Amino acid sequence: MSVQILGLKEINGPLVVLDHVTDIGYDEMAELHMEDGTKRLARVVEIQGDKAVLQVFEGTNGISLTNTRTSFQGHPMEMPLSPEVLGRIFNGAGTPIDGLGPIFAKEHADINGKPLNPVSREYPRNYIRTGISSIDALMTLIRGQKLPIFSGSGMSHNKLAAQIVKQAQLSGDKDEKFAVVFAAMGVQNDVADYFKRQFEESGVLERVVMFLNLSSDPIVERIVTPRCALTVAEYLAYEKGMHILVILTDMTSYAEALREFSSSKGEIPGRKGYPGYLYSDLASLYERAGIVKGGNGSVTQIPILTMPNDDITHPIPDLTGYITEGQIVLDRTMDQSGVYPPVSILPSLSRLMKDGIGKGYTREDHPAVSNQLFSAYAKTQDARSLASVIGEEELSPSDRAYLEFGKMFEEYFLNQGFNENRTIEQTLELGWDLLSLLPKEELDRIDEKMLLEFYTESRAKKFKRQIHSV
């Protein structure tokens, strides 16, 4: 029998305090019954003796201190799960908002997830193709990896996220099932409409599960949004044997909601006002990626975050970098110059790509081409710095070759259209075209056998003719 508690001791922002409460647990869900017969969901966020602090999902406006009745549900927040979640759109708390009715759940799961035994984890191998040359060639996304995108306010990360959802594909076995779980936190209405429109028009919505938390929605909903999304991803991956790509945007909005929530509880703040447990809280989300031994599915994560003031040492990107396996950094200067996607190559990396590319996965020459492109672009930056001091006319022939390479690399390799979906073969061939602009003796990261197979001086001439004809 459900026991109801009449009245509240205190209301503080989105929090309510109850006295003389026993036999409840942290994170337990509760229902607040209003005087007018309506109900509001709440979650236990703190317990001190017989005092309980609850966070109310729909806010505390209009709640009575004396006539509100509270009943506890005996379990934490759960997400209804069924294969029919594919193609559906939910709000941040997991309630359908697409007008197609409720989910007929086959089971329910705690949104906080179940920790994976490290021994049962399988090392991530094989890759997910995004169709974007800079990512596929130089910072390849591996199944089961967590690879964040570090962006800045006003940059084209939303456009990049939409393109990845539209184009992402598995390599290899065509029978493998692939889907995307997309969660947007704290976005404006126009951004939410943009994502919905892009997925519908491109025809990929049927393999996407969308969670949309708007900036006008309560912060408690923003805090549970990624957990609801990851619960669905784990169900589809580990129960249904699918390969799931989870895109979480924007983790900065999530962290700011966490800071606001922590402040309302009166907790002692850490760096820049964020709670001291920000690291462990982010880890509880990011570590829900991976592959389980003996299973057929995988969960791969791309968290997207906007760095405040483009500061990569800010607590959110700083802690994210510690937990995840690399990063894709977007550059504001390139973005303003019209390069899309504006990926900053030198600070970006994928720590797991070495074990998921090459022979048997992408192509045998992929690791060598990737290393050589990184090296050549780094030397391009040195040549540009030198040219700014002594002038381009005084540069050596090799330095001038690097300047030409850098210009072509940014214009034809990094820069690609929003609807341009390149295969890994097209990307690697384009890489060889660019490397052919350099003298053969400069290609010190590629062995002689591959040079004989792929490098010719006529290749550079052909590449330039193609460019001029366009």
TrEMBL record:
<dbReference type="Pfam" id="PF00006">
    <property type="entry name" value="ATP-synt_ab"/>
</dbReference>
<dbReference type="GO" id="GO:0005524">
    <property type="term" value="F:ATP binding"/>
</dbReference>
<dbReference type="Pfam" id="PF22919">
    <property type="entry name" value="ATP-synt_VA_C"/>
</dbReference>
<dbReference type="GO" id="GO:0046933">
    <property type="term" value="F:proton-transporting ATP synthase activity, rotational mechanism"/>
</dbReference>
<keyword id="KW-0406">Ion transport</keyword>
<dbReference type="InterPro" id="IPR000194">
    <property type="entry name" value="ATPase_F1/V1/A1_a/bsu_nucl-bd"/>
</dbReference>
<dbReference type="GO" id="GO:0042777">
    <property type="term" value="P:proton motive force-driven plasma membrane ATP synthesis"/>
</dbReference>
<feature type="domain" description="ATP synthase A/B type C-terminal">
    <location>
        <begin position="355"/>
        <end position="454"/>
    </location>
</feature>
<comment type="function">
    <text>Produces ATP from ADP in the presence of a proton gradient across the membrane. The V-type beta chain is a regulatory subunit.</text>
</comment>
<feature type="domain" description="ATPase F1/V1/A1 complex alpha/beta subunit nucleotide-binding">
    <location>
        <begin position="131"/>
        <end position="350"/>
    </location>
</feature>
<dbReference type="Pfam" id="PF02874">
    <property type="entry name" value="ATP-synt_ab_N"/>
</dbReference>
<protein>
    <recommendedName>
        <fullName>V-type ATP synthase beta chain</fullName>
    </recommendedName>
</protein>
<keyword id="KW-0066">ATP synthesis</keyword>
<dbReference type="InterPro" id="IPR004100">
    <property type="entry name" value="ATPase_F1/V1/A1_a/bsu_N"/>
</dbReference>
<dbReference type="InterPro" id="IPR022879">
    <property type="entry name" value="V-ATPase_su_B/beta"/>
</dbReference>
<dbReference type="InterPro" id="IPR027417">
    <property type="entry name" value="P-loop_NTPase"/>
</dbReference>
<keyword id="KW-0375">Hydrogen ion transport</keyword>
<feature type="domain" description="ATPase F1/V1/A1 complex alpha/beta subunit N-terminal">
    <location>
        <begin position="10"/>
        <end position="64"/>
    </location>
</feature>
<comment type="similarity">
    <text>Belongs to the ATPase alpha/beta chains family.</text>
</comment>
<dbReference type="GO" id="GO:0046961">
    <property type="term" value="F:proton-transporting ATPase activity, rotational mechanism"/>
</dbReference>
<keyword id="KW-0813">Transport</keyword>
<dbReference type="InterPro" id="IPR055190">
    <property type="entry name" value="ATP-synt_VA_C"/>
</dbReference>
